[in-house]
Every structure is written in C-alpha cells, then in structure tokens.
Specification:
Layout lengths: L1 E2 L2 H7 L16 E6 L3 H5 L1 H10 L7 E6 L5 H9 L4 E6 L5 E6 L2 E6 L4 H9 L5 E4 L28 H15 L5 E4 L6 H16 L1 H10 L5 E4 L7 H11 L1 E2 L4 E3 L4 E5 L15 E3 L3 H24 L5 H5 L2 H15 L11 H12 L8 H4 L3 H19 L4 H14 L16 H10 L11 H4 L6 H17 L1 H8 L1
Parallel strand pairs: 1-10, 2-3, 2-7, 3-6, 4-11, 7-8, 12-13
Antiparallel strand pairs: 4-5, 9-12
Helix pairs in contact: 5-6, 6-7, 7-8, 10-12, 10-15, 10-16, 12-20, 15-16, 16-19, 16-20, 19-20
Keywords: NAD, Oxidoreductase
Family: Belongs to the mannitol dehydrogenase family.
Pfam families: Mannitol_dh, Mannitol_dh_C
Length: 483
C-alpha cells in the first residue's frame, strides 16, 4: 500500500495511476485559492497541474486557503500528503482513471493564522486570488442584485472578503500593485458579483480603497462545468483496493470538463488556452447555456426525482419519463432564453447533458444537488421563468419544479420518511411549505426568493396545478403528465 507521499509517489510510481513527473521544488505561488473543495481540485487545480506537466506555469502554483472551521480537516489531510491528492475520473462503464495532482503547493488555514493568509495574498508573487465559496456565499441582495452590507459576516475581518480586502490595502500601500480576483462559482456574472462585493467591502473600510479596487483590480467572469460528487468512504476504499493507494481525501469526477474564461487579468495569467480552456472576450452566452440548461435541469430532476423515490442523479436520468420531461424543459422553456453560443451545437450539448446525468459511475446524490435550494433556484431557474413570462412563453415544467421544491421543503417524502433540509432559509421555507396546503401561494410569497412571482396569474396557476397533482398523485404521475 502506497501513501500519498511525494518522494514515494514520484520515485516509484503506482501502477495504473498517472503521476506527474515535474519537480515541485521551486514552484512559486501565483494563485491563492479560497475554498478548497472537490470542485476546485477537479477543475482549476487540475488545469494548472496540466500546465506544470507540460513544463509551463512554474510561477503559478496554488496556495489553498480555508476560512471555515470545517476546513480544518482539509488542512490536516493536505499537510499530511504534502498537498498531493488523487483525482479519480469515473467512467460510465464503472472503470476508474486516477491521477495524482501536484499543483497545490501550500495550504493555509485562516483560523490558525489570518495574518499568514493576508501576507500571502499581499505578496508580489501572488497575482490571482480565485474563489469557490458557493453561490450563496456572495453578499448580494437577491432582489436588487447589489452588494448587501448587512449580509451575515460580510464585515468580519477574518472572512474571505475581509482577508482579501486587507491584503489589497497592503498591496496598494506598498506599491505592490493590483491582482485579479477570479470567481469559479456556479453563477451568472460571477466576476461581476465578485466585483460588487469586494468593492463594496473595501468602500465600507475606506472609500479611497474602494475606488482603488474598482479601478485597478480585475474580476473576470467565467463559466465552469464538471460534475464533482462528494467523496464517499467507498471512493477511498476503491482507490486502496484497486490501486494500492492510500489517500485521505481523493476527489471523484465525471470525464467531462469545461471552462470558459473572460480574458481580463490585471497582473497576467497562466496560458490556460494550452490546456483547452476557452479564453474569450464574452462569457455571457456560455454562462446562460450552462446555468439554464445544466444547473437548472439539475434542479428540475433533484426535488421531483427525490419525491419519486430516486436517490441518485443517474437513476432519474435513466428513467425514460423523467428524461423526456428534462429534455422538454430544456427545449421548450430554457433554450428560447439563450443567446447564440459561438462554436456550440446546442442539440448536441443537450444530448450530452442527459448522457452525463445518466452516468452511473459518478453516483452523484440528489441531496448534493438539492443543497442550498433557495440560492440555486433563484440563480438557475427563476431567470428563465421571468423571461418566459415576459415573452409569453411556456412555464409549465419550471412551475412544476418549483412545486416539487415546495413539496420537498415540507420535510417528508411520499412515504413519510424525513427529508433533511440543507438551506440557509430552511426554517422559514419549511414553515411556508407546510402552510401551502391551506393557504395557497404562501410558499411563493417569500419575497427574498420569489419577488412578486405569486402575483403572476399564469405562473401561480401552473404552480398550484402541479402542486395539487403532487399532493394527490405523487411526483412520478405529475412528471408523466408533463413529459
């Protein structure tokens, strides 16, 4: 059994496991990444690793940063493994393709030493700060789309925002110069959102600093795509049993990966295009495509699929009735809201999505994609609804998805088993969902999530019709009517 130790891995290798052969000594930290989770390690860190394998980007090593107490485990695992981890690609036939990744050259845990994090970001070698802090982690008012100075923790000096803004202040005062803040979160206009928040936090501290950040720091938008389910104990066991490799926290992912990145960097960047990143002038068409097709369709299958008795994404996508329902949503409701997407065959893209969802090797859970429902529905699905309502287009399937969420938010499935609610608004949304049976549209009247959608007669009627069907006949029959 091999442990994930650099000397052992680099010198002796592991049969069946791809090991990068580059010398990690002397790699400089050019990127500080906040929020080191599975997606980051399956995406940005993998792309940088590919550049290092090609003999490029030795000034672009990554220092990971954890800011939450729960990140202590990641700190311990990565330190024990010298920053190395295994990325395991899960093929549809059940085979595994493991790869050791070496681009994460350091890890700092902010609760241990916030000063170390600030100084690392303030260092002249650091030219990009990247983020995966989840869609709901940005201090954005969902109604106005603007920075929310009352967002919980936004004024905390040890939050991601506080740490970065302090480092930016030091860079300005020392003449080190600006850097790029690169959001890799799943949200439309992620760079624009990051700009509003970091500029807003800087202005709260010092209006002149806020002006400097707005003028000098770059915030490129990006579209990121790779399904990365949570690592299970069975993934660790499979790696050990099949390959003789012990890894405290491997990452599992699907074969597909895509990254579309706006070319807007204040202090240089790696040559990402060398490893198949699409570096473009305008990310917006790609963002709309991914968020409104992949992410919104994840929401479409998540709640209704769970209520119908499924527990994994592939189970839902392999159900012919659900597959027709999902494709109908994509074709009739989401696609009309998209802009032309250069170089993309939309029909082929949608075919690929269903195939990706149906991959049993990934074993992505519905609970994972249902996490943070209020943020994900607001970002992925409701913009489609609003555009279709304005254009007089169909909204029946989207209304059924929202009805499915309402029924799911009651907290029990169709057999009466409890459903754990994992949402920052869970308590109030569950209360509204339980009132919905006797007080129609109570759920839709949550203003922070739905705005004034309850007042739109066409959507409200479709929502109530789908919900009455869910109450009376269940999710499978409701979906079959709309497939």
């Amino acid at each position: 059994m091999r442990s994930l130790d650099e000397a052992a891995i680099w010198n002796e290798g592991v049969p069946g496991v791809d090991v990068p052969g580059y010398d990690r000594t002397g790699i400089r930290t050019g990127i500080v990444h906040i929020g080191v989770g599975g997606f980051h390690r399956a995406h940005l860190a993998m792309y940088v690793d590919s550049l290092l394998i090609a003999g490029e980007a030795r000034e672009w090593g990554i220092c990971g940063v954890g800011v939450l107490p729960g990140d202590a485990r990641m700190r311990d695992v990565l330190r024990a493994q010298e920053g190395l981890y295994t990325l395991v690609r899960k093929e549809p036939d059940g085979s595994l393709a493991p790869r050791v990744v070496g681009s994460l050259v350091d890890y700092l845990f902010a609760p241990d030493d916030p000063e170390a994090v600030i100084e690392r970001i303030a260092h002249a070698d650091t030219r990009i700060v990247s983020l995966t802090i989840t869609e709901g982690g940005y201090a954005i008012d969902q109604k106005t789309g603007e920075f929310d100075p009352e967002f919980p923790g936004v004024r905390d000096e040890t939050s991601a925002f506080g740490l970065v803004v302090e480092a930016l202040a030091r860079r300005r005062d020392r003449g080190t110069g600006p850097l790029t803040i690169m959001s890799c979160d799943n949200m439309q206009g992620n760079g624009d959102a990051a700009r509003r928040v970091f500029t807003g936090v800087a202005q709260l501290r010092d209006p002149e600093l806020g002006a400097w950040v707005a003028d000098r720091v770059s915030f490129p938008n990006s579209m990121v795509d790779r399904i990365t389910p949570a690592t299970a104990d069975s993934d660790r066991e499979a790696l050990a049993e099949r390959f003789g490799l012990r890894d405290g926290w491997p990452v599992v992912c699907e074969p597909f990966t895509q990254w579309v990145l706006e070319d807007d960097f204040a202090a240089g960047r790696p040559e990402f295009e060398r490893v198949d990143v699409q570096v473009v002038d305008d990310v917006v068409p790609y963002e709309f495509m991914k968020l409104r097709l992949l992410n919104a369709t994840h929401q479409a299958l998540g709640y209704l699929g769970y209520l119908a008795g499924h527990r994994y994404v592939h189970e839902v996508a392999q159900d012919p009735v659900f597959a027709r329902f999902l494709r109908g949503y994509m074709d009739d409701e989401a696609t009309p809201t998209l802009r032309p997407v250069p170089g993309i065959d939309l029909d082929g893209y949608k075919d690929t999505l269903i195939e990706r969802f149906a991959n049993p090797g990934v074993a992505d859970t519905l609970m994972r994609i249902n996490y943070g429902s209020s943020d994900r529905i607001s970002i992925f699905l409701l913009p489609v609804v609003r555009e279709q309502l304005a254009a007089g287009g169909p909204v029946q399937r989207a209304a059924a998805v929202v009805a499915g969420w309402c029924r799911y938010a009651e907290g029990t499935d169709e057999q009466g088993a409890p459903i754990e609610q994992q949402d920052r608004l869970a308590e109030e949304l569950t209360a509204l969902a339980l009132r919905e049976r006797d007080e129609p549209l109570a759920f839709l009247r949550h203003p922070a999530v739905f705005g004034d959608l309850a007042d739109d007669e066409r959507f409200a009627t479709a929502f109530r019709g789908a919900l009455e069907s869910l109450y009376a006949r269940g999710a499978a029959a409701t979906v079959a009517d709309l497939a």
